[in-house]
Design a protein that fits this description.
Strand content of chain B: over 45%
Mean pLDDT of chain A: 94
Helix content of chain B: under 10%
Structural class of chain A: mainly beta
Low-confidence stretches of chain B: none
Largest sheet of chain B: 6 strands, mixed
Largest sheet of chain A: 7 strands, mixed
Order of helices and strands of chain A: EEEEEEEEEEE
Radius of gyration of chain A: 13 Å
Oligomer: heterodimer
Number of helices of chain B: 0
Distance between the termini of chain A: 36 Å
Radius of gyration of chain B: 13 Å
Shape of chain B: globular
Largest interface: A-B, 28 and 26 residues
Number of helices of chain A: 0
Chain lengths: 113, 108
């Protein structure tokens, strides 16, 4: 099983550019989520989804959009990149939302110049 | 949203037990307590979780206070491979709240 796959692993953007971070899981998990991790800090929840067609905001949603058209995919869109969005982004999925194990991708390192 | 508070760092000697504390005084009745660990340049890895009762698995034990406002992750015999950042998180219906974690150093 591939688990949770994130692409790209590395990306450099200029301020104002837009891009999409891709996340796909092959475990048929209903719950998916995006986090950002700044140096020396814990993960902060950006957006999450409890199933196809349903998304909600997390702790730090500003500047990011998500959609969930299929169970497998949960892309994260940066609308107009800013240097403050330089971070490592992690996607995760799980079966139950509370009682199950979160499976994380390997992360996408984004630098905004 | 509920927050968790952990010490920034802890040290242990190899093959000795380690007790990693976490405070979550604003926990709600539906929050599950999870522990994850993260190695450099990797995503977090699941360790253990619980709601009210103490839990054991092959990796660790989780002791939860009776009022649920704190918990302790117990590694029974630390190895060098246990050196990582440990996160205590609260999970409820798809939302997960991370603290800043405890960096565990294991000395040979």
């Amino acid at each position: 099983n591939a688990g949770v796959t994130q692409t790209p692993k590395f990306q450099v953007l200029k301020t104002g550019q837009s891009m999409t971070l891709q996340c796909a899981q092959d475990m048929n998990h209903e719950y998916m989520s995006w986090y950002r991790q700044d140096p020396g800090m814990g993960l902060r929840l950006i957006h999450y989804s409890v199933g196809a067609g349903i998304t909600d905001q997390g702790e730090v949603p500003n500047g990011y959009n998500v959609s969930r058209s299929t169970t497998e995919d949960f892309p994260l869109r940066l609308l107009s990149a800013a240097p403050s969005q330089t971070s490592v982004y992690f996607c995760a999925s799980d079966r139950t939302g509370s009682t199950g194990e979160l499976f994380f991708g390997e992360g996408s390192r984004l630098t905004v110049l | 949203d509920a927050k968790t508070t952990q010490p920034n760092s802890m040290e242990s000697n190899e093959e000795e037990p380690v007790h990693l504390p976490c405070n979550h005084s604003t926990i709600s009745g539906t929050d599950y307590i999870h522990w994850y660990r993260q190695l450099p340049s990797q995503g977090p890895e699941y360790v253990i979780h619980g709601l009210t009762s103490n839990v054991n698995n092959r990796m660790a034990s989780l002791a939860i206070a009776e009022d649920r406002k704190s918990s302790t992750l117990i590694l029974h015999r630390a190895t060098l491979r246990d050196a990582a950042v440990y996160y205590c998180i609260l999970r409820d219906g798809g939302k997960s709240t991370f603290g800043d974690g405890t960096t565990l150093t294991v000395k040979p």
